[in-house]
Amino acid sequence: MDVMFCTFLYGFGYDPSTDDYLVVQASYDVDLEPATRVEFFSVRANAWKEIEGINLCYMNCCDEARTGSLLNGAIHWLACRYDVSTNVIVAFDLTERSFSEILLPEDLACQFDFCYLGVLGGFLCVHVVGYEGCPAEIWVMKEYRIQSSWSKSVAVVVDEIPSYFSLICSTKSGDIVGTDLSQGLVKYNSEGELLEHRSYCDVRGRLQTIVYSESLLSLPYDSDQAEED
């Protein structure tokens, strides 16, 4: 009997202990939701491997699969722990190949469909999507894994234009850059004041924006598989 798994968490990171880049994904059996599977793709081995003995009690906090945020040798996700009905940050250690939890801010009150995890200025952060009439909030964890170190860093007031703000990254000068949901980028200063708003195209539909670093790393290439495709 064929088993269909649906991916709900995934991410990419580097394991210094093996000098290897890994793609990690967690998925669940669509016919038996508590049954989960965790596997990773090793760039060095050019192969997938399942991590045995792990059955997660997490689900992502919305209907879409979420990309993890890399920090301190671990990939992090916002997730719902359904066995105790609470929301947490789940961390996957790339060297130990193990999961752990990080507690969210006690004062963070929001709908988690509108919350996202990221890294801002080298710190783990949670940002609440802002839209017209509802400010965007950015919470920063100043000491890694210390719940009491969470602090509200910026509260962005979203006006009619742009009518939406979701965080992407920060600049070296401390400004924050985000998307306006459609085809534009928005920049605010550290006080939450709008500095710039630019639209780049007029096509319909939402575009996904990511931050990347250039690398000389060459990914594995299977010439036989390419010929078959």
From TrEMBL:
<dbReference type="Pfam" id="PF07734">
    <property type="entry name" value="FBA_1"/>
</dbReference>
<dbReference type="InterPro" id="IPR052361">
    <property type="entry name" value="F-box_domain"/>
</dbReference>
<dbReference type="InterPro" id="IPR006527">
    <property type="entry name" value="F-box-assoc_dom_typ1"/>
</dbReference>
<dbReference type="InterPro" id="IPR017451">
    <property type="entry name" value="F-box-assoc_interact_dom"/>
</dbReference>
<feature type="domain" description="F-box associated beta-propeller type 1">
    <location>
        <begin position="8"/>
        <end position="165"/>
    </location>
</feature>
<protein>
    <recommendedName>
        <fullName>F-box associated beta-propeller type 1 domain-containing protein</fullName>
    </recommendedName>
</protein>
